[in-house]
Amino acid sequence: MKPFWILVSGLVGGLLSWGLPGDHATLRAADDVSRPNVVFILSDDHRFDFLGCVESCPDFLETPHLDRLAASGVHLQNAFVTTSLCSPSRASILTGQYMHHHGVVDNQHEVPPGTTFFPQRLQAAGYQTGFVGKWHMGHENDEARPGFDHWVSFPGQGVYFDPTFNINGTRKAFTGYTTDLLTDQAVEWLQQRQDTDEPFCLYLSYKAVHYPFEPAPRHHGRYEEAPIDYPETMANTERNYRTQPRWVLDRRYSIHGIDHMETGAFDKDPVPDFDDLYHRYCEAVHGVDENVGRVMEVLEQLEVADNTLVVYMGDNGFHLGEHGFYDKRDAFETSIRVPMLMAWPARLPAGKVVDQMVLNIDVAPTILDFCGVDPAATREMDGRSMRPLFAAQPADDWRDHILYEYRWEWNFPATPTTLAIRGPRYKYVYAHGLWDQNCFFDLQTDPLERHNLIAVPAFQEKIAAMQQQLFEELGESGGLQLPIRRPTGDRLDQRKRAN
Ligand SMILES: [Ca+2]
Q1: Is residue 112 within 8 Å of residue 103, measured between CB atoms?
Q2: Ligand 1 centroid vs 414 CA: distance in angstroms?
Q3: pLDDT at position 15
Q4: Distance from the CA of 320 to the center of ligand 1, in angstroms?
Q5: Tens-place pLDDT, residues 30-81
Q6: Whole-angstrom Cα distance, residue 369 to residue 381?
Q7: How much distance in Å is there from the Cα of 358 to the middle of ligand 1?
Q8: How do strand 352-354 and strand 74-76 relate by DSSP bridges?
């Protein structure tokens, strides 16, 4: 047993640096659990509720490894993205900044030069850093980006099978399922570095479960017969669209609506079978889960699991029929909510569920905070460290609303430029540049966001106040400048309706 003074100094150090009275780890000497390793795992378009530990998860979907991660750590059940689109959200995760600060406003363009990603800060602080997977900022560019000692990636969206990876500048073709192969790469890097003393940060970014959903062959058909609980807002009924803006109904007939789903000049026609896609999506989620399990098992084998912070999240949500949609981008709940789990056995409580609203821009400041990087490094960030939320008595000064922004894309013109403010109960959504109505939802009485209350007299005062707050806060933050990008890439604007 350690001498009493070491226990006391460890306890005091823990309390001073963490402020987590009651945390089971506070009796450890402070240096035992400083500078944790980090494994950040990102999946693509994995919606928040297709996770076994969420009550509304489809009954048949199995995600045992992610459920175990939640049970061994913290489930942030109200996690959102500030922009629901691959590249902008990824840039927000890496920079801790809103889209209007980092400038990645679509999936077509590179990150502006001079942008700092959080792994650069960790690298400068002595961390070994590795990136494995989908980068997707700068469509055709698979070259290593700043901040990573080890780099495995591919251009743009990548492919589900037989990918070619750029491994530290050398391109190599592989045979197999990309989710498995990326895990192989991640595991290989973790295993080859085991004799070093430096902590590591692995940023593992899966291509799955993005469209076109392709499960591993061993999982294909696993859920074929599973009954689908279709969303209540999926049907094209008067009730579902009576109060919605026109663009919502109109979008049903775009490539991102279920009546024109992924069809048109650049894709196959007729419309793919919704049930098939739904089942393949679930099977692809199951494959990601299985691979997260592999990573966790390797951490155990390497005996680093206790002092490794594992973060799992999705880069944006995804509608599977909600509002007639088959995409993300907009400010409806199934678009902006993401799964987020965080485990660090040495420090974080097990099985904790956090209700407060957290954002993708909180990830970078949280990781840097946990890794003991100088807080000045987060000065440019819009997000906040989530650390206060993990204490036994969480601080009560956490944010009570979130801001959302999406900029209209030339490539997918059906979704307008959108600004939104969401509190625990109410959401106000402003569409810019349209002759249409805005939205106001009461998420308590109408969690499906079927009834737009924008014209209801009783809410006009509340609506005006939220609109004012939205524009005040965005204005103060510099978010009212509209970036206009040169059209580039394919324009998928086919409509399946004449009017
Ligand atoms: Ca995505």
Answers
A1: yes
A2: 18
A3: 36
A4: 14
A5: 344 679 999 999 999 999 999 999 999 999 999 999 999 999 999 999 999 9
A6: 12
A7: 18
A8: parallel
